[in-house]
């Protein structure tokens, strides 16, 4: 029985070390993320045609907000218009794939799948970031959701 507890304790220690690091990106970091990734855009592996490019930016640490409401910034550059997404999910994910977007009138639905290669996840929420470029952009945007959760539309970042 003692060895069983040692195994459980070892597993808990290993899982707790996955992805749950302190720190959260601030407003200044959001602009840096939005502009620094233009050169690293990746074509989505699976898309519904509306997603022109997608980049999974990874985890920036523990989710510190009360509640799990995602944030979305609409950003612009000479290369196009992007939607920078910040949302909470379980710690340990290292892969973002299968991006999709749907426009319904003045609503935008953004989604993608999170996964990892180890199969191990931690029991804490982490802050994940992703960047979508769409082939067509809604002219009037009232609501946005991320992976099925209604998000706060934070407005535009500085055009570059």
Please tell me about this protein's structure:
The chain is globular, with a radius of gyration of 17 Å. With 160 residues, the chain is α+β, with helices and mostly antiparallel strands. The model is unreliable at 1-47 (pLDDT under 50). It has helices spanning 2-16, 27-36; strands spanning 51-62, 71-77, 80-90, 95-104, 107-115, 125-134, 143-146, 149-156.
Largest sheet report: 8 strands, mixed
Number of self-contained structural domains: 1
Q: What is the string of SSEs from the N terminus onward? A: HHEEEEEEEE
Q: Tell me the helix content.
A: 10-25%
Protein name: Lipoprotein
Keywords: Signal
Signal peptide: 1-27
Organism: Luteimonas rhizosphaericola
Based on the model shown, name its key terms.
2 helices; alpha+beta; 160 residues; 8-stranded mixed β-sheet
Briefly summarize what is shown.
The protein has about 160 residues and is α+β, with helices and mostly antiparallel strands.
Write the layout of secondary structure elements.
Elements: H1 2-16, H2 27-36, E1 51-62, E2 71-77, E3 80-90, E4 95-104, E5 107-115, E6 125-134, E7 143-146, E8 149-156
């Amino acid at each position: 029985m003692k060895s069983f507890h040692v195994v459980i304790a070892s597993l808990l220690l290993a899982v707790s070390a996955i992805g749950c690091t302190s720190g959260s990106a601030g407003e200044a970091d959001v602009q840096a993320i939005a502009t620094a990734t233009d050169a690293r855009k990746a074509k989505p592996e699976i898309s519904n045609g509306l997603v022109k490019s997608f980049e999974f930016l990874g985890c920036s640490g523990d989710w510190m907000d009360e509640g799990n409401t995602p944030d979305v910034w609409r950003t612009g550059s000479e290369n196009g218009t992007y939607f920078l997404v910040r949302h909470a999910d379980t710690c340990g994910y290292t892969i973002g794939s299968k991006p999709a977007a749907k426009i319904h009138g003045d609503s935008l639905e953004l989604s993608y799948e999170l996964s990892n290669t180890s199969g191990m996840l931690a029991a804490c929420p982490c802050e994940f970031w992703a960047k979508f470029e769409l082939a067509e952009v809604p002219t009037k945007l009232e609501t946005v959701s991320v992976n099925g959760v209604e998000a706060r539309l934070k407005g535009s970042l500085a055009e570059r």
